[in-house]
User: What shape does this take?
Amino acid sequence: MEKLLQVNDLKTSFFTHVGEVKAVRGVSFYLDKGEALGIVGESGSGKSITMMSIMKLLSDNGKIINGDIYFEGKNLVKADEGEMEKIRGNDISMIFQDPMTSLNPVLKIGDQITEPIIKHKNMNKAEAYKRAAHMLSLVGIPSPEDRMKQYPHEFSGGMRQRVMIAMALSCDPKLLIADEPTTALDVTIQAQILELMKELREKINTSIILITHDLGVVADVCSRINVMYGGLLVETANTDDLFYDSRHPYTWGLLGSVPNPNTLIRERLKPIEGQPPDLLNPPKGCPFAPRCEYTMKICMTDRPPMFEIGENHKAACWLNHKDAPKVSSPFKRGDK
Amino acid sequence: MSNYIVKRIFASFITLWIVVTATFFLMHAMPGGPFDGEKKLPDQVKANLETKFGLDKPIMQQYGLYLKNLLKGDLGPSIKYEGRTVNEIIKYSFPASAKIGSVAILFSLVVGIYMGIVAALHQGKWQDDLCMIIATLGVTVPSFVLSTFLILIFSVKLKLLPPVGFDGPLNYIMPAIALGGYSLSFIARLTRSSLLDVIRQDYIRTAVAKGLSKKTVIFKHALRNALIPIVTYMGPLIAGILTGSFVVEKIFGIPGLGREFVQNITNRDYMAIMGVTVFYSAFLVICNLVVDILYAFIDPRIKLE
Assistant: This one.
């Protein structure tokens, strides 16, 4: 299958008054056309910054210092602001975490949805309004014509996220990046939004990158998962393999912190002890080593390479080296 | 909405009544009266004059009488200027203040907001520093110093502008700058900090992510949100500037209301002091009301109830 997105050795840093914060430290991955990829990791792991780098939405002190981002063969790292304006909202669009603050409070919903349509699709106002109304009904907002005359504060959180999704999909983007789209919503609304995204993906055939720290969410939507930690990609695998045959202790930690509703015994959730690494002075070796149960000498001194495990499955952990002691995932097929 | 306006107008009358009462009694508590000059008037003449203006009556009666006339819109006769009413004094001097004031407001708004935007968009660069130095000077340098320097530079040295008088548009320039300098600086700072706050908001990121140009993002999405605090400041600003500044009017020889007001106080012209105070207060109250109504149009989240 043809690759829609190919990211090679991306490094993004923020230059602050205390020094260079290396938020993304060499990340490579790809995305096929029509694929749904999940990116999982805790706060500060660099997952959002990777996406912001792709969209070039970094704040003024943030900079891509190395790497290439090929989108349909075009290197976005080298694209100027004018070219990016044509891509943003048109070829790649984005949904953000907090729908309560992501819409402009003083502009009507209709104005906000039609903006990208008018800009990218060369439609006049009337046509754009028609299309916007169609998009709103597609995301399940009743009487869209009336709702378009309202302001964001007249919408609930779930409804606003639906508006965001409608807006993001209004120009038929080839890639939709959803940055924790359900984190700020309550659980029932979360399920509705995920269901909607799955449904729309089938209808519109957009590739999706879903960023989250909730493994349950990605399992539901994505076919492949990238796990990020400390500004690095630590494991990538098809969803099934990641859940049942993961090869990185950090992934095991994440899996251990997912509540299991099926178990009859009340077991405590297992947190991952310790703190994520300080990206101002990132550790020389594996970033997870200080928190890892299986740390070896080499983990502290050398950064592990991506070991090939199987088809589409790679993990950056020394345990996968042929000389390493055999440790296997505490999560096996049939466990969950 | 109309319910709200009626309520506000009612509250305004109470405010005005309190201002009138406080001014009335404070004014009468000041030592001296309108007929105490360097040359002492004969007792009989003074008594006659006091009878003529009703100053011989008990103070509560004077107060009642004033309120009664005020309700009819009659601010009474000037005590110092024979044959002129306070209404006439205001009618004559307010237009001059208003003309200079309007120019000053326009100047401070346009330049202030522009400077604020430039500073915010170039945060930490020289443009920002320059705008903020000007803004700091504008807030700290008193208007009489600014006026003096303006006259020195533009009238005395460069001979470009007339130093005093109120004849044509050229006369408006320096007083408007002197009068609007403070507000300009205030608005520039307010716009800068407000815009800096707004461009870090999530919805601005959304706007950029939609592929909008920087111009659209700033002017359509950011500025409208950033100007909300400035609208709040507009009420007192307009009232303050339009009703004039004594110092600036005095320096540039503008026959305005501010100059009139201070003269009235030194003259102990009771009627004129009351009249101008009532006019000032009413003007301020109206400006604030208009701003509050305007608010609801700019920020849809505000419901006037």
Q: What stands out?
A: Chain B has one domain: 1-305. The radius of gyration of chain B is 24 Å.
